[in-house]
Amino acid sequence: MSHSPGRRGFLFGGAVIGGGLLASACTSNASNDESSASAPALAGTDNDKPGQKVVIGFSAPAADHGWIAAIAKNAEAAAKLYPDVEFKAVEPTNDINQQIAAVESLIDAKVGALVILPNDGQQLNQVARKASDAGIPVVNLDRVFPDKLSYRTWIGGDNYGMGVAAGHYIGAKLKEKGVAKPVILEIQGIATLPLTQDRSKGFADALKTYGFTVTAQQDAQFTVQSGTDVATNLLQAHKKIDALWNHDDDQGVGVLAAIKEANRTEFFMVGGAGSANAMREIKSGSSVLEATVTYSPSMASSAVKLARLIAQGKGMSDLVEQGVPQSITLASETITKDNVDTYLPLGFES
What we know:
It is built from ten helices and 14 strands. It has 350 residues and is α/β, with parallel strands linked by helices.
């Protein structure tokens, strides 16, 4: 879920903390404080025992979107689990220069580690490199910095895998229905982001295995309004549709609104992220939305845990290696009516 504004274990406010089933990756933003946090318990490994005090700096885009709001909540909740962690979050912002200045303030404060979800990895690469060069380990969350010298560890969702999962769901169903030349539409998130391009490539590659291609593709902005606008345009341009993949469940709220307004029911839709809103639609059985592919905001809580381990010179307890891995890619799972009850408690509110 991850990007210029926007978005992208234990339960916290409707998002998963720690382990990470869910998913939304995206980007964008729209704050949502509807859920309350439940107090998660630690797993109880030696790694969770109090150790050296660590100050962890945190910077992310503004929470103008459900997935990003869940990112911030998860990061803070994970930090609160550890008496040896001081969590130092800077003001979230969608302004590149403001985020750079905020990260610089954390570097000046000589924090022990940094967790950064950049608005844009390319544009914040230099300040992340500045932190790394100053000896501050950076855990890069979701939107990746292009220079590997800029971060110690990257953790994020499998954007390509999201596209693959969506493509297989759509391709298999259309094959089963015997549709020869299906009209398949794709509503992307922010088109300039590498994560969006990865999602589209995974989708196209999976559809190709069934002999299908995307009929039309249009980008949105990971927001409800952009979802409404783009879906309205596509619905007007295509009088008959067989399947639709929307990259992001937050903008999917707008996509579904446009579909209902147009009274179109001849096709089925797959979402992306794993929002509670989308899962309730899937569970109802009365929506065109039949599935969503995950991209979990739980990655933020895992990022904080990793930053703590790195700063304390520890590795991951379930791995043989002494150090935390250089990159961790979370799996993208497909949520349908058959398994939605398992995932619903883990969804974030759009």
